[in-house]
Structures are given as structure tokens and as C-alpha cells.
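assembly run, all chains below
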Amino acid sequence: MAVNVPRVRAWASGLTPFTLLATVLAVGLGLLAVYPLALVVTRPFITDGRVDLTPVRDTLAQPDLDTLLWHTAVVVGASGLAALVVGAGLAWLNERTDARLGLATDIVPLVPFLLPPIAGAVGWALLGSERSGYLNLALRPLLGAVGIDLDQGPINIHSWYGLIFVYTIYQVPFVFMIVSAGLRNTDAGMEEQSRICGAGPLTTLRRISLPAVRPSLGAAGLLMVWLGFGLFSVPTILATQTDIDILSVRVVQLLSFTYPPETGVAIGLNLIVMLVVTAVWYLQTRILRSDRNSGIGGKGARTRPLRLGRWRPLARLAVLGYLALTSILPLGALVLVSLSGYWSSSVDFGALNLDAFRRTLSDVTTQEALVNSLLLGVAGATIGMLAAAVVSMLVRRSGRGAGLLVDAAIKFPPTLSHLVIAVGFVLAFSGAPFYMGGTLWILLLAYVSLHMPQATTASDAAISQIGAELTEASRLSGAGPGRTFRRVTLPLMMPGLLAGWALLFVTIAGDISASAILAGTGNEVVGFRILEVFASGDYAMLGSLSIMLAGATALVVVPVTWYARRRTRTGTPPPPGGRP
Amino acid sequence: MRLMNDEKKQDEATATGPVVRVDGLRRHFRRADGAITPAIDGVTLDVAAGEFLVLLGPSGCGKTTLLRSIAGLEHPDAGRIEIGGQTVLDTAARTDVPPERRGLSMMFQSYALWPHMTVAANVAYPLENRRAGRLGKTEIAGRVTEVLELVGIPELARQYPGEMSGGQQQRVALARALVAGDDLVLFDEPLSNVDAKVRERLRVELLAMQRRLGFAAVYVTHDQAEAMELATRIAVMRLGRVEQLGPPREIYERPATRYVASFVGVANEIPGTVALLDGDRAVLDTACGRVTGAAGAGLAEGDPAVAIWRPEDGRLHPAEPDTANRWSAELRISMFAGPHTEHHLTASGLDWRVWSGEAGDPGATWVSVDPSRTRILAADEPAA
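ok done. output:
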């Protein structure tokens, strides 16, 4: 219809208490994200009111700076590339071929949430350690049968390939989610047209499908860099026993396990990460810009999936194999070590018992950590999603300008390393006038702020599916902005918000990177407790704690996700002709 | 109940002046490349009580922006809007009443039914929100039933919008627009998403309901046939301005400009130069010879102009007739359309259409048009 309508000045007419409150909330969240970051970036460089560049010099003077950066870059780069290939491949199999498994579509994106990466990393340490890894214990007799006798190996997870492998399997779901969405929004008719024009499946994939989802691949690649550099759980478990230096591990060592903490150097190291992330982000926007006019149809019509023929069982095996590698095997290892009571190079299946679980549950500190983590998960996810819904609504109403600025302020800082932001929260809130250091409040604030990008991404997606006319019709029916939000916008966003809530709950309850810096004996959480137990070498307790965490999150996430998906399915399709 | 007190309401409204008064409205948009384009470029019009005003024009003429400005969904740069005697927009005084306090209803092109609410809940919603004369639960339920019966879908009350056909959704949207009994109801191309048969039936019902309930309607469409059938007055819009405002018959028979003539209905054209101007009669020199017709505004002798006539006014003759405005032409093809046959003719490089009852044979023929049914208009741009 007529002219595409920018609602730039829509604020002016609707300055009600609700919009005012929403604006204050959005600006507050923006400050909460920007202020700690500003502190962290400036504080080390200002001593007694004068600019002091010592931390930069210290950082650059780190004796092993080049190996540290090189090792990290290799692991992040290699695992990112591998995850792109595997994730995009799985997505393509699922969206476009007859190898699709309904089950896999539902489960693959949930894998890192059902079994948090920290638990997965512990699981893989148990599976793949050179001497007494369970996989090695199982493989060696088989190899012996064909005449190869080994004392250790053949697998060593504490190695370059092991580290890259575990990084990869926990990065894949993010690529899978993004590329699947991209494929779903790309008209499969383009591919059918290509087939009719005489191009085979592979040519079509190369010439049509991949270029069409290039924006998704770009976004996924950027995410790989962000997540890769920030990932702390996997390397802290797997890399500390090798000579591979990973930046996130070093930062935590400098901040939490060095006395006095070398904050300046830690931040200096993270500024390097910031530079890399910004460069990748710039590259990504360039990719996206050149692709602005690629023909992505809005409808995403269901078409006949590509027949794989004799490759089909193999493709399905790959999907199931991925699920086994990420979930079933590590979970099995965790269960086995918990039931054994300790980790040894032989498993006595007759002596399995529940002692380790009892020991874990009766441990006061662990109890405290479990309760705190679940509480923080529920509170943080609820506050975060509600705030995100309000912010998305505001940003959409205000269009360009101030709204976007606030949006960027909320979204951008937490995409930097969580470790740095966590240090900012220490600087900002642990001392006067807040005195939140060592309390659950500082954790709650940090968790909410750190997870706003995920939360607002989920709520932006949810609100973008609600035609503007639905809210306009409510305004014309005499409902003000607050009432419209409560009666129309919020209920319609609910499935998307619930899915976002589940994601937030899991990442908060299982958080380990911010917790490594902000948690302590006064505000124990599961992530921090896992680090403590790992340091003490009690693998049975580590296993049972990981299983409890996975169990608790599954108990919350599965019903919520199931309900959200059901709501989306039975939920009514948007009416025809609705303006987006 | 207000729904039933139709006649009284109409009387009141007539006594207090127009339901809507738009004065000097302007709205500009900034395009992506930074250029500023006017969407509404100085519109002034009134809508009387009980009137059915149709805003008609092609895509991008500003009709929807004008409607949304009246609703309060769009924020004009300049101008005043009064609704029921109350100023709801005055850019000079920085008054801009939000849509929920303008006391009007609107039916959207997409129907904008809330998918998470039942039909009854959708229709009850406006009643729950109106502050003035707030109704109790049972009263609201009664009104909802009443209005659902009025639009012919009482059995759908407990259904969800996603479970219904497009035509049924449309009726729900109509019920929601009517339930509050407002004096003014806005329609944004509400019939463009259903098939032709349903559209025709809904048009008749809508008009009957509007006459019965007596609300003033402002209705946006790009379909000129729909506009003619529904309107008491049509405002033909072009590039953000009202090009002509009048009853459908006047718009059709006495279009003010070449643009209106070519947008509303089918117009046959003969370009030429004004040879003679005599009161409201003009004679045009054309490639087909002299053409006489009723003169439009703003003509001067020697100006380029266009003679315009409607297909149903053309007469076909096997031999040269003895009338004014007769032209020799070539009949290319005849198409039987049911009520009439459409004959396609060419003459001096011009394409014409003539609708008549008789069949025709391709070949040389003569056409004549009564000068009183021919209009001579300034040669500005036609509608695309």
C-alpha cells in the first residue's frame, strides 16, 4: 500500500506513564551494560587522575603473549570453521533433504542447553584421557584383537585436535540454528528452478543455496568468533593439562587465581579480543551489505525435499552420530564415574553405587550452589525476558534514532568477553556505594545484563512476527500503550518469549565465566562450584554435580520448550496482507 | 443502547456540524536516499454525519496516510483535524490526541484480528476499553452477540480467527469496528483480500449497515468500481492532494481533470488544440477533425487539450452518420463480455473502446459521440 511508514515520531503522541517507565527501563539497561564496560576499559589506565599506560606495556611485555594469541586463534579459528561446515551441513540436511529427522530438528539446537558445555567438557575429559579415558579403555582391547597393543591412547582429548573437537561440537548448534532459519526463509523454489535449469544437487548447493544463506553464514561466523574467544568452560577443563595456552583461561587466572589480581593485564588481553571481534563484526556487516538484494522470499513455501537415495542412511547416521558425540557419550561417562565413586582405569560394574550422589547432595556448599543457581536462573530469565520484551517494543515503536542507540548500548557490550564485563561489575558494584560484592545481587545484575543480547534477539524475533496493525487496532479500540502491551503484544509474543526464557535460564543456571569472577564462598553458584570441585580432583562429585545440573535444567527447559513449541504450532497464523 | 438509537444519533451529529474536519494537512516522508517526498500535500475536507466518503487513488497517492492521520496512527507535519467538534490534531498548538482517545473505529486491510483471542473476545475488546459509559460484563456479552448477529456470524463467537475463512474473518473485523457504536468508522481497503463474489456481497451488506446505523464512514480503496458503488462522495487523490471531490455520478460524468477521467472508469481520448471556447462549450482541433464537447476548467484558446468520452457513449455506424463528433475508424477486434460487447478501434493512431449491444465485424466503421457526452479537458498527465 501507499508509503512505507517510518514511525519516527510516534513517541511524541504516546508519552504515557507506561512508555515513560519503559523508556526509563531501557535506558537503565543500557547504562547497566555500558557503565561497567566503560569502567573496565578506563580504570586500569587512570592512576590518581593521570593517564597511565603501564597495563598496555605490561600486556605487551607478557613473555608468552605471541604463543597465547597464536594458540587461541588456532583453536577458535579451526573449531569455528569446522562448526560452520558441520552446522551448515546438518541444517541443509534437515531443511532441504529427505534425511530430515523430526527429532533432530527439535533436539540439536537444545544440545548445549540439555548438557551444559562445562558438563560436556568434563564428560569428554573422562572419555578421552590418554591413560584411563573410558573410550580408550573400550578401544584398546578391540585394537589388541587386531594386533595393535597400546598402553595409552589411541585418543588423547588433552591435545590440539581434542580441544578443537570439543570446541566444535559445542559451537555447532549455534550455526545450525542460524543457518536453518536462513534456509527456512529462503524460497526453496530458487533451488528447484536451479535443478530445472540443469544443475545437479551439488552445483545447486554451491551456486544457489549457499550464496542465498550467505548472510546467515556470516552471522554464524561472527558468533563463532565471539563465542570462541569467550568460551571458558571447555579450555579450563581440557587445556590446563596441556601446553596449549588459551586466552580466556589466562584471564581468569590473572583475575581470580593470582594475588594481587593483575586486572590491568587481564583487561589488556581482552582489549585485543575486542579488536578482533570488532574487525570480524565489520567484515560481517560488509558481507551483509553486499547481499542486501539477494532474493529471499518471505513465504518459505514447503517444497518437496531433495532425495538423497542411497546417501540417506549415511546422512541420518551423521545426525545421530553428532547427537551421540555431544550428549549421549559424555553423559554416559558422567553417569559411569558418578556411579563408580571414583575415576580409575578399570570399571567394576558390580560395585556401582549412588554414594557419590549422596555425598554431593549432602555437601552444604553444593546444596547452596544448586539452590542459588536455580533461583538466579529463574529470576534472571524472568526479569531479562520481560525487560527484553519492553525494549523490543520500544525499539520497534521508535524506529530509528534514540531507540536504536539504546538497543545497541544494551546489545553490544555483553557480546564482548563475559570475563571483562564481569570485572566491570566488580569495579562498579562491589564497593561503595553499592557494596554488592560477594552477594547474589551482583550476580543477578551481571547475569541479566550479560544475557540481554540473547534475550532481546529472542524478543525482537517474537515481536517482528506481530503485524503492526494488530497493535494499532488495539489503540483504536481505546486501549492505551500499556494496556495494548499487556493484552495484545505480550500474549502474542509469549511463545517466542518462553523459548528465550528457557535459553536464558539454562545459560544463567550453568554460567561459569561470569561466575568464575563474581561468585565466591559468600555467593556460591554451580558454575563456580564445578571449578572448585575440578580443582580438587574429585571426579565422581564432578560427574554427579554435572548430572544434577543437566537434570535440573532439563526438568525446567523441556516442559517450557515443549509448551512454547506447542503454542507456536497451534497458534493461529498471522492474517493475510498484514503489514510487517 | 447506542447501536439501536441510530436516527437520534444522526440528528445530533447533523446539528453539531461535520463528523470530521481536515484542514491544511501535510505529511512528508524521508526516503532512504534522503529525499523528502510529500505523502499528503495540503488536504482539506469535511465528512458529514452519515456520509460515506471514499478516498480513491492509486498506490502512493496518500489516501492511506490520510486515513491513518485521521485515526491518529500517523503524525502529520502540519494541519488540523477535528473529530465530532473536538480538535484531535493541531500541529500549531502541538495537540496530537492518541488514537485510543479519538473515539473512532477502524477496519484494517489485514483485518488485524488478535489470533490469541476468540471472536467474542476480539469484538468485546473495544467495549472493555472505552472509559465513557463503561458497560458491565453481561451488557458487553449482550452487545457482542447483537453485533455478531448483525454481521451474520453469531455461531462463530467461540472460534479463534485462525480457524475461519477470510470472509468470516472480515465479518469479525467489521463487527469489532461497529461494536462501540462510534459516529466515525474508518476502513482501510477492508475488502481487498477476499474473492470477487464475497467482496460484492460484503459491499452490499456494508452499505446497508452503514445506512441503518448511520455512522460516517471514511473508506480507502484503489478499486474505482468499489468506490462508485459505496460512496456518497468520492475524493480522488493524486500525489497527496485531492484532485476532485464529489458524488460518484459527478466524478464519472463530469471529471474535472484528465487524471480523474482516466482513473475512474475507462476513458477514450483524442488529443488536440482548443480552437474555440464558448461558455461551457469547447471545440478542439484534432487529427480526427473537429471535436465538440463540454469544456472543463482552466482552458484557453490555443491550449493543448484532450477530448474524453466513455465507451458506453460511443455509437458504431456502418456508414458515415449525420451527427457532430463522428470519426472514421478501424474495428480491430470485438470481445463479448456478457452485458455488452467491447469493440477495440483504432483511428489516427489512437486506441478506443466502445461498448454496445450489437456484435461487430472487423474492418472500416464509423463512431459517433454526442457532444454533451464529450468532455474537453486540459492536457495534463493521465492516470498511469
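Residues 56-340 of chain A form a domain with the MetI-like fold fold (CATH 1.10.3720.10).

The two ends of chain A are 12 Å apart (CA to CA).

not gonna interpret more than that til we talk
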